[in-house]
Amino acid sequence: GENVEQHPSTLSVQEGDSAVIKCTYSDSASNYFPWYKQELGKGPQLIIDIRSNVGEKKDQRIAVTLNKTAKHFSLHITETQPEDSAVYFCAASKGAGGTSYGKLTFGQGTILTVHP
Amino acid sequence: DVKVTQSSRYLVKRTGEKVFLECVQDMDHENMFWYRQDPGLGLRLIYFSYDVKMKEKGDIPEGYSVSREKKERFSLILESASTNQTSMYLCASGTGQGNEQFFGPGTRLTVL
Question: Which residues of chain A have pLDDT under 70?
Answer without folding.
Answer: 96-99
